[in-house]
Amino acid sequence: MSITRDDTLNWLKACANTIAENRTYLIELDSPIGDADHGENMHRGFQAVVKKLPDFMDKDLGTIFKTVGMTLVSTVGGAGGPLYGTFFLQAGVKLAGKLEMNLEDWAVALEAAVSGVIARGKAEAGDKTMIDALLPAYHALRGAKEQASDIHQALLLSAAAAQQGMEATIPMVARKGRASYLGERSAGHQDPGATSSYLILKAAADCWA
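The structure assignment produced for this chain is given below.
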């Protein structure tokens, strides 16, 4: 099974929808440890992406991902714009010229995306950031591929790992980002960036499975 251009566009629509549905939730998560704007910022960014979908109908996956990345950089405020922009831009580099992707293609693209976010945000696992959802998701995807799982199972395992990583941020003390200013008081709160990362990967599993 391959993920086509239409599948990718449907995923982007699903991302916009799930972010819209969870906008208030993301704001609530961000309120005690951030600037209470993550939900609104992400919503604005993905609504801008949706407006560009008609322009993607004849484009390759690399161009689509890169354009999404640039759109998020220019429309999502705070740290989220550069980080999510980097995610899509780096994935787009690995998907250049492709009109569809298989499990290996997505694993390579996701690895590049996560590595790009790590480099851009200077964060690592355990810092209470989106990396705590993204990195387990990548490892689960790669592990599933090495076990010769089909793409359906691999995507579900990847999303489940992202969820576990997201939930694991609750007891963490933030070491990066706005939440790190709170020190020990940041513990007990789920990281909003890890949450939006999970929502996006869950949307991929739902659409592409």
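Interim note for the steering committee: The chain has one domain: 3-208. The chain has a mean pLDDT of 94.
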